């Protein structure tokens, strides 16, 4: 309660952001998610939306912090960001200039959400993120290709398929979804399972992920399972050195 | 009421509530002989060792509070000659650090996940009585640490492993190790103790294909390992890393099997195990040639090294040994004893088959 009240105060004091980032129109469609929400193991429908072509960079995030100084690391309330928030920056309002084009990391969900709202945007939902991330450079859904799937194991490390700056865009024209950094999604907290994840108390249905009605349609898709494991470990104020974000916009 | 009866009343009440006798009343004798009483003395920091070494016996006659500090480290290490692998480790080694406590100890477990890890990790210790073996309690993000406390209720040699999804992958990448809970009297004294743990590994490239080899999910699901290894690397127990003993010494091997898939037919060529504490428990079998160690299980094997030689540790599911790497050596030095073993006594051509006498 306290959290949401404070949040509204912060939101009210924020002003529209400056630099327009490149968004790519994503045509919606029916999609079989690797994860399964309770009672729904059929296709999910993703509506048309737009997604940032690449993850928000440190330089872009700096512009936001300069306009919204309540999100500086020396001013952000502890409710909204843990002690790791922007800890890789060389100053409270400045990243290392040499690395400023790299995806912004050490950003909490609250901060990422505020950034996107300041862009008149929002964080993508998990389903939207997964829908676009299913693509490789040639195919919109490359998930049945075991070679592609295996390459995704390195997500979140410097060996990830999109970690190199010159990695090609995927079939939608989106870059870096499988990069050295993981990415926040707006509804990450619905991915929460129990923290053991083996669902000892509820048998097969929960064999792969926790007790909040989430299971897996595709047990071979370990790469996505790793991502869900990571996101479900997070609190909205948590930050990580390999967790960044990008924004999305619904079609008006 | 007299002062004496006040004390008696208090004592009776404390006993009824199951509270340890207050310090003012407890005698040292009483406290030292009851394992269920309050923990004695200052907390002890557990000595952790990388394989093949084992921490020294606890040498305690009473339970204690023991603090374990273990860090998860993801790192590239050799898996074979010219081949590397991105291992995920407990304490920087595969298998992870050996932990040694005593039955009745209260263990405060601190799990740290290194800042440069890319995944959250946790730990399920089979020595723990309680939900998930501690996995729930140790859900640890990169750059974070968690803590939980358990009582080591049952003596034995137990596997621990990471239980984060995808569980199989965390284990396949090396996230397992052993924790020994000594019985109250300790284990029988031996001259040498070693830590050996088998694991199966799945790489995209074939056996011996050089360079950094990524994990292969297909092979892991099919249970077709590229490597089957002792202590996480081919050659980890050979050459100048061979285990050593002198003839006449007694040796105890703490043998674990991290899996994730294969069970092990553990055997030492040229030795007979005098004792095998089957499945790492309290009962032993005697005079055993090969002992079966399940994935996620263990055994303690003991034997006396009577005569010198190179004794070869193998998985007697034998193609693994010579084609996938499950090979270690125990080098025993000392005086030969031809009353036990002569070595080759002669070699000659055998006479040609005789002509039929008829």
UniProtKB/TrEMBL annotation, chain A:
Residues 22-249 form the Sulfatase-modifying factor enzyme-like domain. It comes from the Bacteria. Gene3D superfamilies: paralog of FGE (formylglycine-generating enzyme). This is Formylglycine-generating enzyme family protein. It holds the Pfam family FGE-sulfatase. Residues 1-17 form the signal peptide. InterPro entries: CTDL_fold, Sulfatase_Mod_Factor_Kinase, SUMF_dom, SUMF_sf. Keywords: Signal.
TrEMBL record, chain B:
It catalyses: nitric oxide + Fe(III)-[cytochrome c] + H2O = Fe(II)-[cytochrome c] + nitrite + 2 H(+). Pathway: Nitrogen metabolism; nitrate reduction (denitrification); dinitrogen from nitrate: step 2/4. Keywords: Copper, FAD, Flavoprotein, Metal-binding, Nitrate assimilation, Oxidoreductase, Periplasm, Repeat, Signal. Its EC number is 1.7.2.1. Binds 1 Cu(+) ion. It is an enzyme of class 1 (oxidoreductase). Residues 74-185, 193-325 form the Plastocyanin-like domain. Homotrimer. Belongs to the multicopper oxidase family. This is Copper-containing nitrite reductase. It comes from Lysobacter arenosi.
């Amino acid at each position: 309660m306290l959290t949401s009240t404070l949040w509204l105060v912060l939101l009210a004091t924020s002003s529209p952001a400056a630099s327009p980032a490149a968004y790519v129109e994503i045509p919606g469609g029916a999609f079989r998610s690797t994860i399964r929400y309770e009672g729904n193991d059929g296709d999910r429908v993703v509506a048309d939306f737009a997604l940032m072509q690449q993850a928000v960079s440190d330089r872009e995030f700096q512009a936001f912090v300069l306009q919204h100084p309540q999100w500086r690391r020396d001013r952000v309330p502890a409710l909204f960001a843990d002690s790791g928030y922007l800890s890789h920056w060389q100053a409270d309002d400045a990243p290392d200039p040499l690395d400023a084009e790299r995806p912004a990391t050490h950003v909490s969900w609250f901060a990422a959400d505020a950034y996107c709202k300041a862009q008149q945007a929002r964080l993508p939902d998990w389903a939207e993120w997964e829908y676009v991330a299913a693509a490789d450079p040639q195919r919109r859904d490359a998930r049945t290709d075991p070679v592609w799937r295996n390459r995704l194991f390195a997500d979140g490390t410097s060996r990830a398929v999109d970690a190199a700056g010159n990695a090609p865009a995927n079939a939608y024209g989106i870059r870096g979804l499988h990069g050295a950094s993981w990415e926040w999604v707006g509804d990450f907290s619905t991915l929460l399972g129990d923290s053991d994840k083996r669902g000892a108390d509820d048998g097969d249905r929960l064999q792969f992920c926790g007790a909040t009605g989430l299971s897996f349609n595709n047990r071979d898709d370990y790469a996505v399972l790793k991502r869900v494991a990571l996101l479900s470990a997070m609190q909205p104020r948590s930050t990580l050195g390999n967790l960044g974000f990008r924004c999305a916009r619904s079609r008006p | 009421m007299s002062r004496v009866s006040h004390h008696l009343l208090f004592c009776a009440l404390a006993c009824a509530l199951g509270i340890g006798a207050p310090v003012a009343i407890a005698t040292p004798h009483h406290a030292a002989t009851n394992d269920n009483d309050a923990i004695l003395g200052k907390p002890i920091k557990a000595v952790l060792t990388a394989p093949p070494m084992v921490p020294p016996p606890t040498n305690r006659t009473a339970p204690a509070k023991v603090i374990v500090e273990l860090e998860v480290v993801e790192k590239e290490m050799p898996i074979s000659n010219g081949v590397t692998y991105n291992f995920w480790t407990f304490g920087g080694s595969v298998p992870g650090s050996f932990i040694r406590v005593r039955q009745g100890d209260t263990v405060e477990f601190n799990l740290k996940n290194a800042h440069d890890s890319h995944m959250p990790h946790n730990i399920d210790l089979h020595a723990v009585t309680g939900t998930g073996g501690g996995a729930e309690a140790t859900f640890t993000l990169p750059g974070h640490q968690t803590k939980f406390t358990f009582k080591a209720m049952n003596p034995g040699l137990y596997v621990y492993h990471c239980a984060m999804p995808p569980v199989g992958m965390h284990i396949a990448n090396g996230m397992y190790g052993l924790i020994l809970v000594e019985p109250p009297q300790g284990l029988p004294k031996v001259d040498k103790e070693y830590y050996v743990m088998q694991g199966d590994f799945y790489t995209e490239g074939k056996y011996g294909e050089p360079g950094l080899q990524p994990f292969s999910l297909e092979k892991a699901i099919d249970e077709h390992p590229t490597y089957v290894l002792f202590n996480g690397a081919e050659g980890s127990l050979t050459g100048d890393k061979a285990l050593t003993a002198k003839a006449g010494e007694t040796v105890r091997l703490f043998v674990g099997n991290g899996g994730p898939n294969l069970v092990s037919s553990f055997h030492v060529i040229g030795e007979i195990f005098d004792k095998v504490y089957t499945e790492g428990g309290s009962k032993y079998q005697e005079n055993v040639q090969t002992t079966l160690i399940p994935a996620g299980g263990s055994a303690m094997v003991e034997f006396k090294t009577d005569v010198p030689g190179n004794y070869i540790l193998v998985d007697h599911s034998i193609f693994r040994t010579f084609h996938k790497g499950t090979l270690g050596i125990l080098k025993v030095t000392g005086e030969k004893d031809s009353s036990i073993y002569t070595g080759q006594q002669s070699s000659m051509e055998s006479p040609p088959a005789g002509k039929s006498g008829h």
